[in-house]
Amino acid sequence: MPRTLTINGQEVSAGNEQTILEAARDANIRIPTLCHLDGLTDVGACRMCLVEVVGSNKLLPACTTRVQEGMEVHTDTERLRAYRRQIIELLFAERNHVCAVCVANGHCELQNLGIAVGMDHVRYDYLFPRLGVDLSHERFGMDHNRCILCTRCVRACDQLEGAHTIDVLGRGARSLIVRDMNIPWGESTTCTSCGKCVMACPTGALFKQGSTVAEMVHDVEKLAFLRAARERKVWNV
Amino acid sequence: MAQRIVIDPVTRIEGHAKISIYLDEAGEVSDARFHVVEFRGFEKFCEGRPLGEMAGITARVCGICPVSHLLASAKAGDDIFAVTIPPAAEKLRRLMNLGQIVQSHALSFFHLSSPDLLLGYDSDPAQRNLFGLIAHHPDFARGGIRLRQFGQEVIELLGGRKIHPAWAVPGGVREPLTPENRDYLRGRLPEAFTTVKSALDFFKAYADSRAEEVAHFGNFPTLFMGLVSKDGGQWEHYDGYLRIVDSEGRVLVDQFDPRRYAEIIGEAVEPWSYLKSPYYKPLGYPEGAYRVGPLARLNICSGTGTPQADAELAEFRQRGNAHGVVISSFMYHYARLIEILAALERISILLDDPDILSARVRASGGINRLHGVGVSEAPRGTLFHDYLVDESGMIRRVNLIIATGQNNIAMNRTVKQIAQHWIQGATAGIPEGLLNRVEAGIRAFDPCLSCSTHAIGHMPMVVTLIGSNGAVLAEVRRE
Asked: In chain B, which residue's Cα lies nearest the Cα of A186?
């Protein structure tokens, strides 16, 4: 049974299983996201899609909150804009993002969001962690300096490829994306080298070997296509 | 009482520097030093980066000559890939480097140095800049600005942007040239030729009437080093063999593979500057001082390879010593203008080459060698990029030898020579115009200090006058 709610004052009709994010997109209302990727399950990790819901004293992630009848949602308030900019600034301060010489320059979701939220500078001290680059895989590389721990690669590997080579080590800002039991990527016995993790990455953290500056374009659309094609059983096998 | 004069900052050059002039008890100049006061550390922080990123990272060494670093880095990458790049890719890289030479030389001559020449060394410093030039010599200034713009357009139309194009990559280049862009550049050439020819006419007349500057702006024997073409030893800017010639025209080194540079070039370090002082090893430091850049390239080559520049080269050599070698650093300006002419002629030839529109511009390759050296001629001289990588293509060690650094010893001697000639029996009241001549001596080399210390920013200047007891007696500072 469909639900009726308002988003930014606009009446919206949505399926009862839909999330606020899905309902908003159907109504052409854009909510910024980072850890969400069409074709993967949502984890509500990045907090970019937080929205205000009248009657709730906390902010709710639009990607994991289901719509309810009569819900009053606000997606673009001054408070939300301030938090979103803060989140992006903290992501930039947490690791070593240098857009000018990044393989994903010009094709990066983090960079695009930085522009969208009006991040003209970062108010926090950079942490400058010493993080490594893994070039041991024949075709792909991982630069932890550019990783924002969105876990899209972890979910793509698990949910689409079914290999579950990739996982998260540690806690908090010190977490690291690892392969198998934290071994060099090139030594992984479970990785199928399918490249879905590279497609899923929003930044330049995962890239094709040999990529030069601004050359790495991620094919995120292919992942949603794969998921949808499987669900609709478009391949008769 | 002995004194020290400090010029800080040195203006109208690229980067940060200051000059100290030491006076003895009698007020005579006993020594002078050119200090480069910035430090950047590219060689260190490139360690641990993937090879593919190096062209993009090292291009950031400089905003004036990013193309030079881009090309030297891409060539070091070609060496590590162990590939021969497609012929069109080499021609396109050459085209971009020629555009770079035009724009950088035009910047040095018209924007930075011509205010001294046209307005006078002693003119009002507030007017002695590009804006004063526009006010007093608008056609000259406009021509220079548009000439530089043309060079920038060559770079932009190939690489997608004027500064820091991520275009040359290990194995070739990323994008070919379109017919529309080729035609556009062709259309811009006649005006560029006219501008540089009238600048040459002006400079020749100027130099012939300024014997004092020619005789004292870094006029001393050194070696000269640069690339020459593998075939015939002609003027070269992208690939070739190293040649070293002395001030009497004797060839000391020839047909030398530049990848073996470490066998003949040593690097000395002085405690008072972040700029290293490379020297020719067999002669030791500092006797092995050599100069690079436009003056050196014209002194070492057998010819420029194009008719108009060859005619100018013949005239240039007539202004040299008995051996046809031009040893005054003041003539760097002259050499720069001849090189612009040579570059324009070569651009014209390349644009007519049917191969220049080929879409096959990038060879693929992997890590086939763990050591790669890329050498090209930057506007300011020979540029070396030397990388060690591991089996996965991760950078393990970087050595960059930058053109400006190689002129370090000569720049120091130039400062001393100018100071000794113009600042005698000095007191704290040295006229600003005399100090400007000291700066102008540095400007003749068109140093890029951001590059040479692998460092940042525009260049303020300080000249300090230091007494024999070490006390600073006078300081002229300019932001």
From this structure: B392
